[in-house]
Amino acid sequence: MKPTNVMKSDKGRILFVEDEKELVNIYHYFLESHGYDFLSTKDINEALMLTELEQPDLVLLDIIIPKPDNAVAEQGWEYLAAVKKNPKTKNIPIVVFTNLDTPQDRDKSEKMGAEAYIFKRDCTPREVMAEIANIIKDDREKKKADKN
Amino acid sequence: MFNFKAILLIIVAIVNIFLAWIVYFRNKKSQINIFFSIFAFAVGLWALVLGFYHLSISLNTDELLMRSSYGAAVVIGASFYYMSLVFPLKKKKYRFTGIILLLVSLFLLFLVFIPGFLVQSIVAKNWGNDVMLNSFGYYIFSLFFTLTFLGGMIIFWKKYFTSSGIVAKQIFYIVSSGSIAGILGMLFNLILPSPLFHNFQYIWIGPIFTIIWSSSIAYAIMRHRLLDIRLFVVRSILYTLTVVAVGMIFIFVVFFLGQNILGSTFRGIILGSVVISLGLEPLIHFFRRVTDRYFFQEKYNYQKIFRELTESMTRIMDLQNLLDTTTATIKNALKVEKIAIVLWNNGKDLPAEIKQVNLNILFDIYFSKKKPLIKYLSDSKMELVSAELKIEIERGKLRMPMAQAESIVREMQNLDIAVCLPIISNNILIGVLALGDKQSGDVFSIDDIQLLNVFTYQAAIALENALLYKQVQDFSKTLQGKVDEQTKDIRTKSGEIEEKNKYLQELLEMKSDFLRTVNHQLNTPLSVMKGYFSMMEEGSYPADKAMPSIKAGLERISSTVADFWDAYELEGERMKMQPQKTDITEIVSRLIPEKQKMQLARERNLTIEVLEPKFKMPIVWCDYKKIAHVVSNLLDNAVYYTRQGKVTLYYELLDDNYLQVNVKDTGVGISEEDKKKLFQKFSRGNNATDLRPDGSGLGLFIAKKIVEGNWGELAGISQGQDKGATFSFTLPIYKNQQPDASQEKPVSRKKIVRFKKV
């Protein structure tokens, strides 16, 4: 997905790091219809570049992202680590959006600085939308408070 | 003139005096030795005196010598009588008898030397010297001698009947040799010279036979073992007879042939020497045969026996066979009733083999190497004769400490063993040959012992080899056993491996089952949904009609995946329970309406009911959600597998601690075959495909794991095919149980988690 260079929406800009095309389409439809800017990629490096350049208000991050050679890998963790390491991106809220369902995965997400954890299987897009809206709202309030 | 009578008598005298000397110095303190010495000395003196008498030095000398001979005879009689009293052991004091005997004999001695009392004078006759006797004195002397001699014999004879073993044998030979010597002596030296016959020509014969007599007594005294006394007696008789015969022949040749036919004594001497030198050997042989035939009627053929034994020892390798053969041979040869061979393994105390015939050795402990008997045999490597040892004990002359000797004798008596021989190999006791008494009651002779000794010497190697051979055989048997065992082990192990293979095979099958199930479970609803979507896309199908089916499909996929996940977790036993106080009726009352609304239940017109408990429902301690899952699962199953009738849920109170929840149906039941794999993962009943095509085969597996995780049990019972089934599970009743502190923090199944920012 090419980044869109349209004006940043008030609602916010969402980066969806996901390899599953169907899901990307579903969330593209839902997020844009709700007034969000929508960016997506299934390439981890491209995702990092987009994060730094586009400065999304939120990143929806899948963990299990196969490498270009289709080898199954949990590349999401690498992305998360890199984003939190980079001063330009470390304050961007990351929502882990995955089918990995163990407490360990949740703990890991929290420790690595993710804002939230969403169990992909059990959630409807509507629920996800609501959660995204909440996080962006809270994040903006927090940043506003930090500035003052 | 060459006087052979004198020489013969002097030789006899020397022999007797020599015996007296030996016996006396053997034990100077022993009364029996002293009195024998007196006896033998007197006999020797008697023979010596008579010998000198035959030299005919002068009439005066002859007179003194003749008196002396009667004096010696008095001493002989007296000492023999006293000896009979004290033989074989002086047990009583014979002071009174002794003093009387001493006084009488001294008095008689005194009388004998009074000129004219017995021997009046010596008169020279053409055949030699004649002795003039006083009849009164002679009868007094004869009375004394006869009384003492016969008295002694009677006492010995009595002792013979009261004693046993070697002592009896000793007395027997003393009495019998005494009888020979006494009868001949009395005949030639008492009866013939008596005033009735007045024949002094043969007084030289009597002393000769005293050799048998005195030597048999000497032997009895000196050699406590006296094993070969018979042989000794026999041989002494043999030589005595030979000497007499040779003497007779010599006399005949020299004096009769020499003087009357050849013309001179000198020629006679030469002829006699030739005859004797030629005839001595056949003569001795003849006498030996005669005496052997008389004395050794049951004598065995030593060489034949030995050949037999050696032959069997070289031929037979098998231990048992060897023992059987050798014991039988020895038993028959020596005419013993009881015999045993005991063998030891090197270094062991207890014997390895006991071969016994007619003996009653019940326990091998009798032959422990620590026992005195075996210990002695092992240490001394000498044979042990029970009777010999007994005499040693009685006489106090022992080759070992008294206590040891006594315990050995006791042991031998207890075991009925008369003779015991060690079997020695490489200086180590490897066995013992034990024999009971001879059937004849005879004692063992030196020959016997020698045969046995040679046998044990020869047998040592053969027996040791046989024992080793047996051990090797046993060992190879054990080895074979071990090999068999190992083989069995390997077979068992390979069986285990086979089982594991089978298990893996099953796993593989399960995996393929799993994949097929997944395929079916996920793809079916997907294709259904796709179908609805296609229809909607074409616009020919109203979306509101498609919606419930699509929703159901989604639910099905969702629950299948959840099931698989649960199963995966359970497999790793990772599912953590979160027990809490639970009212099970709450779960049931929520689930029953749900199940009643199930499409299948309605189609089949099933009754789903709950029987109200007759007791106060207790609160149970369990993971609410998971137990709800179990109840739901059991009810689902009941509905699926019941074509008609009803599903009943009821409670039972097992005891104070457990509540049982039962779900009973009137369905197809469980076949015997299915019962075995009821709770296995991915296992599905034979009829499951028809009745519940969408089942994952995981429901009961998960349910069982959950119940067990909540300290309960889940079981399914059925009367059989088409007779319905009841699934029951138990749960612990709440009694102040506390959440397990060691448990990890509760697993949150919240689908969205907001992390609190630090």
Helix and strand arrangement:
The complex is a heterodimer of chains A (about 150) and B (about 750).
Chain A: E1 13-17, H1 21-33, E2 37-41, H2 44-54, E3 58-61, H3 75-85, E4 94-98, H4 103-111, E5 116-119, H5 125-147
Parallel strand pairs in A: 1-2, 1-3, 3-4, 4-5
Helix pairs in contact in A: 2-3
Chain B: H1 4-26, H2 31-55, H3 59-86, H4 95-112, E1 119-125, E2 128-133, H5 135-162, H6 165-191, H7 205-208, H8 210-222, H9 229-262, H10 265-295, H11 302-315, H12 319-334, E3 339-344, E4 351-357, H13 372-380, E5 384-385, H14 386-395, H15 402-414, E6 419-425, E7 428-435, H16 446-537, H17 543-571, E8 580-582, H18 584-596, H19 599-604, E9 607-610, E10 620-622, H20 624-640, E11 646-653, E12 658-665, H21 672-676, H22 688-691, H23 699-709, E13 714-718, E14 725-732, E15 752-754
Parallel strand pairs in B: 9-11
Antiparallel strand pairs in B: 1-2, 3-4, 3-7, 5-6, 6-7, 8-10, 11-12, 12-14, 13-14
Helix pairs in contact in B: 1-2, 1-8, 2-3, 2-8, 3-4, 3-5, 5-6, 6-8, 8-9, 9-10, 11-12, 11-16, 12-16, 14-15, 16-17, 17-23, 18-20, 20-23
The total domain count of chain B is 4
Query: CATH first level of chain A: which class?
Result: Alpha Beta
- Residue stretches of chain A low in confidence (pLDDT < 50, at least 5 long) are none
CATH class (first level) name of the largest domain in chain B: Mainly Alpha
What's the total helix number of chain B?
23
Radius of gyration of chain A: 14 Å
Strand order of the biggest β-sheet of chain B: 4-3-7-6-5
Mean pLDDT of chain B: 78
**Helix amount of chain B, in percent?**
55-70%
The CATH homologous superfamily of chain A is named Response regulator
Question: What overall geometry of chain A do the principal axes of the alpha carbons give?
Answer: globular
Segments of chain B where pLDDT lies below 50 for 5+ residues?
224-228, 741-747
Indicate the structural class of chain B. Answer: alpha+beta
Order of strands side by side in the largest beta sheet of chain A? 2-1-3-4-5
How would you describe the shape of chain B?
rod-shaped
Coarse structural class of chain A: alpha/beta
- Kindly report how far apart the N and C termini of chain A lie: 37 Å
CATH topology of chain A: Rossmann fold
